[in-house]
UniProtKB/TrEMBL annotation:
Mur ligase central domain ranges (all copies): 91-320
SUPFAM superfamilies per UniProt: MurD-like peptide ligases, catalytic domain
Key words of the record: ATP-binding, Cell shape, Cell wall biogenesis/degradation, Ligase, Metal-binding, Nucleotide-binding, Peptidoglycan synthesis, Zinc
UniProt protein name: Lipid II isoglutaminyl synthase (glutamine-hydrolyzing) subunit MurT
E.C. code: 6.3.5.13
Enzyme class: ligase
Biological or metabolic pathway of the protein: Cell wall biogenesis; peptidoglycan biosynthesis
Job of this protein: The lipid II isoglutaminyl synthase complex catalyzes the formation of alpha-D-isoglutamine in the cell wall lipid II stem peptide. The MurT subunit catalyzes the ATP-dependent amidation of D-glutamate residue of lipid II, converting it to an isoglutamine residue.
Oligomeric and partner information: Forms a heterodimer with GatD.
Protein family per UniProt: Belongs to the MurCDEF family. MurT subfamily.
Biological source species: Alicyclobacillus mengziensis
Active site positions: 393
Chain ranges of the Lipid II isoglutaminyl synthase (glutamine-hydrolyzing) subunit MurT C-terminal domain: 357-473
Amino acid sequence: MLVHKKTLLCKTRNLPYSIIDATACPTTCVSFGVLELTSLRLPAIWLGKLSLIALRLAGRGATSFPGKIALKVYPQLLARLGQRLERCVVVTGTNGKTTTSSLLAGILGTDEPMIHNREGANLPQGLTTALLQHTSWFGRLRRQTALFEIDEATLPLVTARLPVKVLVVTNVFRDQLDRYGELDTTVSKLLEGITQTEAVIVVNGDDPLARHVGLHSGRRVSYYGLSPRHATMGHHNQMRDGAFCLECGQELTYDAFFYGQLGVYRCENCGFERTEPDFEGAWHGNALVVKEGRLPSVEYRLPTRGLYNIYNTLAAISAARISGIDASGIARGLATYEAPLGRMQGFATNPPATLNLIKNPTGCDTVVQAILSEPGRKVVCLAINDLAADGKDVSWLWDADFERLAASPDVLACVTTGLRAEDMALRMKYAGYKTPQIVMSPELSNGLELAFEKAGELGEDVNLYVLSTYTALYDTANWLEKKVTAGAKTPTYRTSVS
Ligand SMILES: [Zn+2]
């Protein structure tokens, strides 16, 4: 019954549909038999757009649903709409995707409106929804530029269908194990996704794992990295998953580190090593100086704080340069940046609260580092869920460096909440907190209320820092928003860490 799928060729790419659409649903082929699939393109768009309107009338934002229903009717829709994009940029990697793509959105969107999948919707359904929002009833895509943030694991599903021109790999760290498996799987997903495109790859060359991806991509690669003068051999208790050479398995030798496994590395066994970056960043104070080959260095104002954000900004600038944007366009774009949800997002509550997303050990360590670098006494609240989107395996909490919180005289107490509040409380006990310093309440709003009470008890100058996994993030942000003191203005500019 499905024989025609093997022979039916996509008209634009001359490849079988079964290759172009990795998830091309057999049910569509079964239900529509040998129907010429292109005739269903407009009905699919109409269905998608009608469900977008219905969701809007129901007061709900765009979800993946309109894209899902449209793809059911016409599985090639994402590829067909995507073909019309002149500039399609993808940002992938373990940490820093959201901040990097927000920064890049500001830059690419300065001169012309563009399509951008904000957080969450990075499967084909979500991307199709994003495109449908900018498609006319006659099927015409109204935008020429799109920027998509894509998880490493879903990259191959997406790149086969979109004409990606520039693809950024921010870094490769260990993420939720049950979602992505081990690092090798992540690296092979990235390579699989990249080899399906003709894109220029923009890679963090300070990360040996990302460098390995660049080396084996078979595509034109531009590396970005920091000036070695910012690397140190100082205190390092952070994760270094990638500290082994992926080429030969030998442990890498480091001259110095930036953070995690990022540094100036080489393999004594096979000669694999960090390369001179095409875009080299150095900073002083609030300025990031970017050196691009033999061109004169350009100084940009950093829109965020923290070392990981210097990387994110450098990634965005490199991708923008590869996309043909000049320095003044980049500077204008960076000035429009606002921190996305849960990235050192401040709330004018009493006491003031700061919300951060945590999802893996390295990201969590950078959040801890950012919290410790802020002045004043603190209470930390950890909201930990283990639903599918968080990763069901919470053992990574044991790899994150919570000991640094416990060792700081400024972090006075911690409150744990969410579905895994008990595991988190146990983790904090092992990190070094005494039992009276740990408060636990699995129910989220109660846990947050207790965190405010605890901070209030400890003194007027105590600030609250909330660390939350993905599925608790939106509820926590809403709860904090309601708690904002009447008339107070929530700061929109804060450090961003992911
Ligand atoms: Zn090696």
